[in-house]
């Protein structure tokens, strides 16, 4: 079983509005990302919220997901990751760390990573598009305690650097793994869907 933690607690400091609630594909950025993830073979999805948690909870209320609010979101991404890890099912063998502002990653890309993670003997699975690593990253649950000890505005990158011999890179056919929404330009580009697929 693969548990997915969807990090949706960022403050979006470079966009002067709540980016996850901006319109995208008939819903919002978060809904599009979440719905794509839910079409995949993940065993569960844990959505970690921060700012505007009350509004976002209402927006995604009809999805079959676990929702948790990180009260310390302002202390960095590691706190959201740790908050999500607290809800991971004990049966999980792998933990996928996904970003809520990547609405163009489709179910087949998630599935390619999931299948690779369950069929190889490496503990860290990273997607690669044209030689460039992206997200989401899947970790074996053997790294759970190390992930819990992370501090500051970091995700699993620190562990990736620490264990280069335990990495399996998976080539994917979509640029979407390297595209997130940090600026209004990013948003407009993704909205127009002018990315390589």
Give a quick set of tags describing it.
single chain, 197 residues, alpha/beta, Spore Coat Polysaccharide Biosynthesis Protein SpsA, Chain A, two-stranded antiparallel ribbon, 10 strands, 29% helix
Q: How is this structure best summarized?
A:
With 197 residues, the chain is an alpha/beta fold. It is built from seven helices and ten strands. The protein has one domain (2-191): Alpha-Beta Complex (Spore Coat Polysaccharide Biosynthesis Protein SpsA, Chain A), CATH 3.90.550.
What do these coordinates show?
With 197 residues, the protein is an alpha/beta fold. It has one domain (2-191): Spore Coat Polysaccharide Biosynthesis Protein SpsA, Chain A (Alpha-Beta Complex), CATH 3.90.550.10. Helix content is 29%, strand content 22%. The protein has seven helices and ten strands. It has helices at 29-38, 53-59, 77-85, 107-119, 144-148, 157-162, 184-191, and strands spanning 2-8, 23-24, 27-28, 44-49, 66-69, 94-99, 124-129, 132-133, 137-140, 167-171. Strands 1, 4, 5, 6, 7, 8, 9 and 10 form an eight-stranded mixed beta sheet that branches. It has a two-stranded antiparallel ribbon with strand order 2-3. The protein is globular. The two termini are 28 Å apart. The model has no long low-confidence stretch (mean pLDDT 92).
């Amino acid at each position: 079983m693969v548990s997915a933690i969807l990090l949706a607690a960022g403050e979006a400091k470079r966009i002067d509005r709540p980016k996850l609630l901006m319109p995208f594909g008939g819903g919002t950025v978060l809904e599009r990302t979440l719905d794509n993830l839910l079409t995949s073979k993940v065993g569960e999805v844990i959505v970690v919220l921060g700012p505007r948690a009350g509004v976002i909870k209402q927006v995604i209320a009809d999805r079959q997901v676990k929702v948790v609010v990180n009260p310390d979101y302002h202390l960095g991404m590691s706190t959201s990751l740790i908050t999500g890890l607290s809800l991971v099912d004990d049966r999980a063998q792998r933990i996928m760390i996904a970003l809520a502002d990547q609405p163009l990653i489709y179910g087949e890309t998630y599935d390619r990573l999931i299948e690779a993670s369950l069929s190889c003997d490496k503990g860290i699975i990273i997607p690669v598009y044209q030689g460039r690593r992206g997200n989401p990253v899947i970790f074996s649950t053997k790294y759970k305690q190390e992930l819990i000890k992370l501090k500051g505005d970091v995700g699993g990158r620190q562990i990736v650097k620490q264990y280069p011999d335990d990495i399996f890179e998976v080539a994917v056919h979509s640029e979407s793994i390297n595209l997130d929404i940090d600026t209004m330009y990013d948003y407009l580009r993704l909205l127009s869907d002018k990315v390589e697929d």
